[in-house]
Amino acid sequence: MKVFITGGGGFLGHRLARTLLDRGALAGPDGRPQPVTQVTCFDTAFPEHPDPRVKCVTGDLAAPGAIAAAMAPDTAAVFHLAAVVSAGAEADFDLGYRVNLDGTRLLLEQCRKLARPPRVVFTSSVAAFGGELPDILDDATTPNPQTSYGTQKVIGEYLVTDCTRKGYIDGRSLRLPTIVVRPGKPNLAASSFASGIIREPLAGVESICPVDPAETGVWLLSPSKVVEAFIHAHDLPSAAWGTRRALNLPGITVSVQEMLATLARVAGEHVAKRVIYRPDPKIQAIVRTWPIRFRTERAAAMGFAADADFESVVRAHIADERINV
Amino acid sequence: MKVFITGGGGFLGHRLARTLLDRGALAGPDGRPQPVTQVTCFDTAFPEHPDPRVKCVTGDLAAPGAIAAAMAPDTAAVFHLAAVVSAGAEADFDLGYRVNLDGTRLLLEQCRKLARPPRVVFTSSVAAFGGELPDILDDATTPNPQTSYGTQKVIGEYLVTDCTRKGYIDGRSLRLPTIVVRPGKPNLAASSFASGIIREPLAGVESICPVDPAETGVWLLSPSKVVEAFIHAHDLPSAAWGTRRALNLPGITVSVQEMLATLARVAGEHVAKRVIYRPDPKIQAIVRTWPIRFRTERAAAMGFAADADFESVVRAHIADERINV
Fold it and tell me: Is A161 within 8 Å of B151 when comparing Cβ atoms?
């Protein structure tokens, strides 16, 4: 079966592509495993050395015809990860809507034209939530995003659900916690610091923490767990989703202070001391609107799982990146 | 101040225009009443004899440039009523998204370009709700539409909220109950029968009831109450809305059976007997997804009001249309 990944040049998308090729199979329409014969990654840019097994297509999601040209007509699985990130969409309103809304619509339109309705896994975000919130969110909490990025993600969920109801796709939307530890470089996401304060010190460089460590909590999930979640979301039968196609993924709640204490414990005080506090009101204002505690019973019942604790998240990053500590 | 009404050729839009001109004032940015100097109605079609005080502009909401050409740069109040109705949007997926989503975006884009951010009243719908629902919905119930129309309305709410947060508009979205009794002719809305079974018999003609009278309930509001609600929604200060820009309007819950009993009581058994039962599974399937019981405390606290009872709704229609009973 053929797989199509938007944002497939990004860290998570490319990792998903590699994992699918290593794994070699995904559930087919009848639920039985089918061999993965092709993985196409679509993105505006790719790593310098992409996995040679992956078909990389460079293009603009929001350019009419770009997806149509890149997606094989017999594509069976689509993972939609491409997005202008939170601070980026906040800084450029038009760009955010162009990519995150228009791009998603163009993708769904193309999916509708495929030989048969594909399974579509859409990456939404806990940025869907905001405003006056309960202390602990659950599956009944109404999205009330306080950023354009969050708004675009919620709209994407509704589009995926409507296209599913119409039978054009078999869609599933996952509201991702903040993914920690992301490898690579800081990006424009307001949550970029949450990985930076672990990643940079471990790489021997300083990192700026723009938020108050004691007062800031993060609802997070590791890269390997979220890639597992993408695949699990795809492989679940349609009936497991019913008419509720959007799901809050499990995660763990950790304060920035606990994150730094864990880093010190695993890698040493001298490593944790590479984090410099420099408050950024803009970042703080965005991060403050994100919820950090969830009850995710529905996801648990569907077989999704979070990391055991933050220490295992840090140790997984150290192993992935082959860091000597 | 200048007022712009999309769907202003339709029954509600034109009635709103007339009411605004009769009333002569709307709250200005400082909350104090300002004289209404111009009411522009934008629509694809207009009544044969539109109110001569209204400026009627014929155009396609989703055609780029159409709204820009029609809307005065110093427009202060926008009422967005235009939409492809529920059964229409369900029958033609692309048309529904083109008008109800693309059209709304084009309208909001134009609002953003005005001399100062206008107040925008957006008409959403209880079609926002569906799927597994509690017996009584309230302000915390998460929209889960089971039609493309409902999906497009929810997306419109999120766009209005995001544009408000960004300071481009001062937006307010109202989730309308079914409006009963609409004058004029039946339309493609799945709810068309709810007015038809009162209006047609009173006009001396037969009307088809496509749903089971005992099992079908309707959450409804009269034309005069909803026009009052539009104006009240506009005139409330921005602070009254806060970050929650979408509101379930109050209404009353009436079974189709009670509606017909009321008609018989007010106009006579011979009139009520003009209703013919002819079940339509398509209409029933849509109507069944609509909720009929709400707690609307927030709207009540904000000063919105429903009709006293269904009899007053019928009597208002008889008075409006100058019917002899």
Answer: yes
Expressed as residue numbers, the domain containing A313 is 192-218+252-294+302-320
Quick one: how far is CA A64 from the chain centroid? 24
**pTM for the predicted model, two decimal places:** 0.95
The answer to whether position B132 is within a domain reads yes
Higher per-residue pLDDT: A185 or A218: A218
CA distance B166 to chain A (A): 9
Residue A167 sits at the chain B interface (C-beta within 8 Å): no
Work out whether the CA dihedral A126, A130, A135, A141 comes out positive or negative.
negative
Residue B21 near residue B55, CB atoms below 8 Å:
no
The CATH number linked to A9 is: 3.40.50.720
User: Which residue in chain A is spatially nearest to B90 when comparing CA positions?
Assistant: A166
Residue A142 lies in a domain: yes
Question: Is the same domain home to A214 and A264?
Answer: yes
Cα distances from A44 to residues A41, A82, A110, B108, in angstroms, run: 10, 9, 18, 29
Taking residues B309-325, what's their average pLDDT? 95
Helix (H, G, I), strand (E, B) or coil at B204: coil
Q: What is the pLDDT of residue B190?
A: 81
Is the pLDDT score of B289 beyond 80?
A: no
Residues A169, A112 contacting (CB under 8 angstroms) = yes
Residue A275 confidence (pLDDT) above 90: yes
Active site residue A149: yes
Contact B151 A166 (CB under 8 A): no
Q: Are A127 and A85 in contact (CB under 8 A)?
A: no
The residue with tokens 């602990």 is A136
Question: Residue B246 above 90 pLDDT?
Answer: yes
Beta-carbon contacts below 8 Å between A and B: 55
| Angstrom distance (rounded) from CA B35 to CA B3 | 11
Of B131, B132, B158, the CB nearest to A155: B158
Query: What value does the CA radius of gyration of chain A take, rounded to a whole number of Å?
Result: 19
Q: Are residues A165 and A76 in the same domain?
A: yes
| Closest CB to B146 among A105, A142, A165 | A165
Query: Model confidence over B216-244: pLDDT tens digits?
Result: 999 999 999 999 999 999 999 999 999 99
Check CB contact under 8 Å for B141 and A142. Answer: yes
Whether A185 maps to a domain, the answer reads no
Task: Give the closest residue to B293 by CA, choosing from B68, B78, B136, B103.
Answer: B136
Please tell me the distance from the alpha carbon of residue A268 to that of residue B303, in angstroms, as a whole number. 61
Q: Is residue B167 part of a domain?
A: yes
- How many independent structural domains does chain A possess? 2
Considering only the beta carbons, identify the residue of A131, A159, A244 that sits closest to B243.
A131
Question: Do residues A143 and A127 share a domain?
Answer: yes
Interface contact B158-A159, CB threshold 8 A: no
- How far is B228 from chain A, CA to nearest CA, in Å? 27
The chain-wide mean pLDDT, for chain A, equals 95
Tell me the pLDDT band of A289, cut-offs 50, 70 and 90: confident
| Residue A215 burial (CB count, 10 A) | 11
Residues A94 and A123 in one domain: yes
